[in-house]
Please model this.
Amino acid sequence: MPTQALFGQLLIGLINGAFYAMLSLGLAVIFGLLNIINFAHGALYMTGAFVAYFLLKLAGLGYWWSLLLAPLAVGLLGIVLEKTMLKRLYHLDHLYGLLLTFGIALVIQGVFRNEFGSSGLPYGIPSQLTGGYNLGFMFLPTYRAWVVVFSLVVCLGTWFVIEQTRLGAYLRAATENPTLVRAFGINVPRMITLTYGFGVALAGLAGVLAAPIYQVNPLMGVDLIIVVFAVVVIGGMGSIMGSILTGFSLGVIEGFTKVFYPEASNTVIFVIMALVLLVRPAGLFGRTA
Amino acid sequence: MLIVKLFTIAVTLVLAAGAAHAQISDGVVKIGVLNDQSSLYADLTGQGSVVAARMAVEDYGAAAKGLKTEIIFADHQNKADIGSQVARQWYDAEKVDVIVDTPNSAVALAVNQITRDKGKAFLVSGAATSDLTGKACSPNTIHWTYDTWALANGTGNAIVKTGGDTWFFLTADYAFGHALERDTEAVVLKTGGKVVGKVRHPLNTQDFSSFLLQAQSSKAKIIGLANAGGDTTNAIKQGAEFGVVKGGQNFAGLLVFITDVHGLGLQTAQGLIFTETFYWDMNDKTRAFAKRFAERNRGIHPTMIHAGVYSAVTHYLKAVDALKSDDGTRVIAKMKEMPTDDPLFGKGTIRADGRKMHPAYLFEVKKPSESKAPWDYYKVRATIPAEQAFRPLDQGDCPLVKK
Model:
């Protein structure tokens, strides 16, 4: 395998890693504050892609509007879910949150599949981002380059807000000791609701980014959630930077697997997860409680 | 254990004796549609196949002819173990007489064996592997609609003849993909072409960019897609993004269905060439069928698999009626004996190895400007007569065929 071809695969890996990073970031934020493993994440990612499709089909609003409106819509849906259902489970074991969100995911996916079938709906690349660059060692579609840059900005922005701002400090404090933070007059339940909304909005955003690449398909999030969950586990549950770094690096590792042993490309992440858990049960960047 | 065994033998004997008296077992002909109801093949098989089976029963007028029928369906989730489990349960506990459709060659091969062991009937429309009429052929199975040999032969030949003589395969990593790759490679080599590389991807892959990059660096003129459904559409869509066609390479979709074209949109799919055995817009009869079918199937027009289910169930009912029995082995034998005739595939025959014979067509996807109505997608490039469309009887290594 010539080095040039490997370079191409590295870049492809980064692009896929961008999706993993954005989705696992949302999962990590939600787990960090709500202690809930959000299995509805994949379904909400798919919902984001569908909102983009509806906006185009019904309202004539293109990709750029979707990039703004779809995450808002998915975030709102998340807030409704949190207000009506999830918040009743905070005092219970993780398992209940997992079961509930898994059930929600099945319902959402089932409804969409029933309505729209399984072969997906077409969604084009916005005209400003068609075409690509010939880098010599590979052809880089403009849209993929855009995805990497955009998701890096979103990921780092999220990290900055949570780790470096006052708002983030409240969030982190509420994670550590919600009762004490409440005593300082901060509305913790509302913060939790908004955090969930934000986390799933990230999933919706990833869905819009994915729509022009994949088919807008009711099943697009089914397998992804398992992979992304593995990414979060490897990175360390609740670690923000951990999930970003792990997302990108696992994308790269998966990309190389597709070259050297493609048959294993959908299992390699789980093998890594098993190995990491053996050596560091709290994940690469996680703190042991 | 011995007691269980003895009991099983006793029951089998009783059942066999019952069948020998030429009767419809428990008074009902029970048809089980076993396919993918929820994943990447659900649109091209799924509920559409159930609708097709129901329409076949209604159009045949089974009730009026005094034939009691019942249709059930199940989702095998593309897993051979689940498919086998359902098939066993259907045959043993639920008195199913015939299983139809069953896409996913891995599942179909498993059900093929179970059906043979139980002496029931298996009408394959969805699965592609040509092994079903080759080394795995069975006196209880008919392979109805198409197979990997026909796809490879129709599409492969046409493409090599127009100059596409170097190939790179993107292959779904299971029984179907392997069979399709094998059969296509044989055609490519026979017609003087060359295979410069191949890569096997897991079933239901979302991202093909890495594989496409490998295909691009192989410099092959043709990228052969030995996969189906969502895998094919994702590969083609992302291929457009990566400038595969602009870079001078072309895709050969070896198994493309009308639902895939619909999902891709004509803008992306135009110019694709592939082989199928049915298109809804062929003549008045197929158009009338498609109209009724789409009304009952969320507007989705019939794929060749749906059409095959309709045609197979129709012929099955004729044979059951003629025999006044639903004994699997005997009905299949009767079906092979009788010539077939239905509005979708016209007149045809069934060979000793279980191959249903009808013409195949080489289709080309229309340009957006050529398409006059929704689902108006194909034009016919060539018609391949039945004898040339399918593998010659003596080349399949089917043990049922006497040499």
In short: The interface with chain A takes residues 38-44, 46, 173, 199-202, 204-207, 209-211, 213-214, 216-217, 229-230, 233-234, 237-238, 241-243, 247, 259-260, 262-265, 267-268, 298, 300 of chain B (CB under 8 Å). The radius of gyration of chain B is 21 Å.
